[in-house]
Amino acid sequence: MNIFVCVKQVPDTETKIIPTSDGSFIETASIKWIMNPYDEFAVEQALLIKQANPAANVTVVRVGSVKDTEALRTAMAMGADEAALVEATDNLDSYSIAKALKGAIEKTGKKPDIILSGKQAIDDDALQVPQILAEMFNLPSVSVIVGFELAGNTVKVKREVEGGALEVYEVSTPVVLACNKGLNTPRYASLPGIMKAKKKPMAQFSLADVGVTDADRRVKYSGFKLPPEKPAGKKYDATDSAKQREVVSQVIGLLRTEAKVI
Amino acid sequence: MANVLVFTELHDGHVKPVTLEILGKLAGQSADVAVIGDISADQVAELAKHGGQNVHKLKGSNLDKYSPEGYSNALSEFIKSKSYDYVFAGATSMGKDLLPRLATKFNAGLASDVVNFVFDGGTFAGTRPFFAGKCLAKVEITGPKPHFISIRPNALGMTANPTAGSGAAADVNANAGDIRAQIKEIIKAASTKVDLTEANIIVTGGRAMKNAENFKILNEMADVIGATVGASRAAVDSGFAPHSMQVGQTGKTVAPSLYIACGVSGAIQHLAGMRTSKVIVAINSDPDAPIFTRADYGIVGDLFQIVPILTEEFKKLLGR
Fold first, then answer.
1. Which of these, A42, A168, A176, A189, could form a disulfide with B185 (CB 3.0-4.6 Å)?
2. Chains A, B: CB contacts under 8 A, how many?
3. Which of helix, strand or coil describes residue A132?
């Protein structure tokens, strides 16, 4: 069984984002890069499948800059067998990324049985790549999954929708699945795992190698800027319990008369 | 003038508010609506009031339940029979799942989770957040048409006096094609409240809630003001609330008209997820908590004392 996990490398969630002076993207020089948090659930799910099916092979694939290969090394330290990296800028659009992932998966010569990824990357938050990839491969897909069972070649997954309701899907492999938090608890990489990861194979491709050109771009992003800051609001001290009711009724009054939201 | 199709999903027979937000904002363009299945005359009238022209009801077998393949097959066949420049939908659970597949059937681009847009000489130009709203960027679509756009609920707002459309409804024969990923069962959520991403009022609890049990004081206040309850990442990671309630960069990005943060310190990833709320109230015992830098109305004090008083005062005000 061939399992592919598509991962992205993104700025850590605590990163302060600073747009470049020309607005073309953000300053990336001092960013701490991490594996996209949702992709960790995808890597973990692949490893859980491999535990139950020892003959399975797990390949992690990433499209992005090569300044740092943290995401792929982390995935291999967790237990993935090998990696493929397509070198590209960090602000490619979803269509180009999906096409590059498809090209890289095909380059490995292995026919995918299960392709996993996070439900979204927390940089562009586009929520597009897994579904585009599925359509490009002409495969079924289920996104935002929080439950997974594999029996033979039938996958039963739970997809989370509005309000926490769940849609239960049954689908045969090959399939593309996009993982949400709650699916599993990602393991930490062990020290021996980290040492072993250094010797695991990592194929490297250019966009041209995997058949992607500038003409594949479908969405252009520009004019990156910080959102407008709100002026400072009003702050009331209600630490003294004698004052609490007065403060609360004042705030509620303002919500009605000034903010007009109640 | 651009030729636009707006796909609307139905929830309990009603079009989602985001559809009406989109139609209102499309004033000046020609906007048709597509729905899968039947839609009542009342709802067609609602679409027309907000600017909907032709309302296409796509009907066929295997379309009673959502499936990514069935819906994208049916819609792509319909869209190919017309000449739309743009296809819009809400960035809802369904919209986010469906549109990337549908767009790829045309090898076309999709601008997702757009929060504002204009048409300049018939060409779309939008704004969308990056990094959960830590910054904004302009988004344009190139390549083959139609171009696809998903719109974040609650972002555009309703247009005050929309220009009405004709609202001419007609059935269209639709073909779901082969469906490999099928819904076998739907497990209903414990809560019947509107989802955080679509809520008008949100009450969120942070780490200071101390445990899951204490969320009941937030639920009581939420019931009085018609709010949906959310949680910070710290509260979710501590096991006080499920991930479906999480607001922030690794949870849901929300844009309600009123956001009440209770015992939320205001980590950068949380602020990113709720910063577009129109009015923010924060209750925290730490006067230096970062959440106060974003709050319109900050109350420094113990949430376990303040929240019950808020609930009582809201009850008095609203006569509930």
1. A168
2. 277
3. helix
Give how far A68 is from chain B: nearest CA, Å.
19
Which contiguous run of DSSP H or E holds residue A86?
Answer: strand A82-87
The backbone torsions φ and ψ at residue B304, rounded to the nearest 5 degrees and listed phi first, read -70, -20
The secondary structure of B73-90 as a DSSP string is HHHHHHHHTS--SEEEEE
Of B132, B294, B298, the CB nearest to A236: B298
Quick one: closest CA in A to B108, which residue? A218
A171 or A231, greater pLDDT: A171
Strand partners of residue B201? B258
User: Helices A129-137 and B93-105, interaxial angle, to 10°?
Assistant: 40
pLDDT digits (tens, 9 = 90+) for B167-218: 999 999 999 999 999 999 999 987 788 999 999 999 999 999 999 999 999 9
DSSP A146-209: EEEEEETTEEEEEEE-GGG-EEEEEEESSEEEEE-TTS--PPPPPHHHHHHHTTS-EEEEETTT
Chain B residue with CA closest to A238: the answer is B301
Among A124, A223, A238, beta carbon nearest to B300: A238
Does B195 contact A162 at a Cβ distance shorter than 8 Å? yes
Radius of gyration of chain B (CA): 21
Contacts of B218 (CB under 8 A, 6+ apart): B203, B204, B205, B209, B229, B262, B307
Give tens-digit pLDDT for A101-158: 999 999 999 999 999 999 999 999 999 999 999 999 999 999 999 999 999 999 999 9
Q: What is the pTM of this model?
A: 0.95
ipTM higher than the 0.90 cut: yes
Percent over 90 (pLDDT), chain B: 96
Q: Is B172 helix (H, G, I), strand (E, B) or coil?
A: strand
Residues of B in contact with A129 (CB under 8 A): 100
Nearest by CB to residue A164, choosing from B101, B111, B242, is B242
Cβ within 8 Å, pair A233-B244: no
* CA nearest to A123 within chain B: B131
Whether A261 sits inside 8 A of B68 (CB atoms) is no
Q: Write out the two tokens for A222.
A: 């520009």
d(CA B10, CA B90): 11
- pLDDT at residue A67 is higher than 80: no
Task: A190-196: list long-range contacts, CB under 8 Å, 24+ apart.
Answer: A190/A77, A193/A77, A193/A78, A193/A79, A194/A73, A194/A77, A196/A76, A196/A77
Q: Which helix (H) or strand (E) holds B7?
A: strand B3-7
Tokens 């707006």 belong to which residue? B6
A68 pLDDT exceeds 80?
no
How far from chain centre, in Å, is Cα B109? 21
Residue B106 pLDDT: 98
In whole angstroms, what is the distance from residue B152 CA to residue B162 CA?
A: 19
CA gap B190, B216 in Å, rounded: 14
Q: How many helices (H) and strands (E) does chain B have?
A: 8, 18
